[in-house]
Amino acid sequence: MKKYFRNKELKKLAAQSNTIAYKGLDKASSCLILFSNNSPNKVALCLLLEKMLKDHGIKTATFGLVTKKLAKNEEPTKNYCFQNQLNWKGFPKKEVVKDLTKSNYDVIIDLGEDLESPNDFILLSVKAGLRVGVLKNKPYFDLTVEKANNNEELLVNEIEHFLKNITKE
User: Fold this and answer.
1) 90 SS3 class
2) Among 6, 125, 133, 164, which has the highest number of CB atoms less than 10 A from its own CB?
3) Given 3-state DSSP classes, what are the helix, strand and coil percentages for the chain, each rounded to the nearest 5?
4) Do residues 167 and 23 touch, judged by C-beta distance below 8 A?
5) Which conformational region is residue 149 in: left (phi greater than 0), alpha (psi within -120 to 50 degrees), or beta?
6) Which domain holds residue 127?
7) pTM for the whole thing?
8) Taking the alpha carbons of 114, 32, 9, 12 in that order, is the dihedral positive or negative?
9) Using an 8 Å Cβ cutoff, are 101 and 127 in contact?
10) Minimal CA–CA distance to 46: which of 119, 98, 96, 104?
């Protein structure tokens, strides 16, 4: 039952998908990177992407899904969502993502590997010019890139190459 309502909401969000023009990496100014992790810190791939984007003068925001629960007396970490901050459909609660969903980004890069991820809600709720997925193919990605031989630097170089050479009006 949960999966039924989750998929129904995702289809609704995909139909209302908020897109803006993407005019290439040289004209981009903002990027949102979504990732999952076991602890509230950034994964190495996310850090490499942030560095590459910073080298191009692009402001990055990150949002990480932490696969453990937030302790009762622990303060939530900004731009992270813990398991007990998800609603019954498995999406981040609105108060956790309200700042993200009000923003526009030229590019959203989803580093998650799960086919059903809480980050899907953010991916479809945020206005973006280009949606990039890593390792998983979903109908709402404009581009999917696979990591060859688990080499994160090659993956970042491939994403950079595509972002430089793709436009979407």
Assistant:
1) coil
2) 133
3) 40, 25, 35
4) yes
5) left
6) 2-165
7) 0.87
8) negative
9) no
10) 119
Which residue's structure tokens are 């303060």? 75
Cα 11 to Cα 156: distance, rounded to the nearest angstrom: 30
Per-residue model confidence as pLDDT tens digits over 112-133: 876 667 888 888 888 899 999 9
CA distance 34 to 29: 17
The whole-angstrom separation of Cα 123 and Cα 101 is 9
Q: Which structure tokens are listed for 127?
A: 């206005």
The Cα 34–Cα 63 span in angstroms is 5
CATH number, domain with residue 111: 3.40.50
Residue 142 structure tokens: 């404009």
Q: What does the alpha-carbon distance between residue 116 and residue 42 come to, in Å, rounded to a whole number?
A: 20
Amino acid at 12: K
The total domain count for the chain is 1
Those residues of the chain that have pLDDT short of 70 are 1, 16-18, 114-116, 148, 150
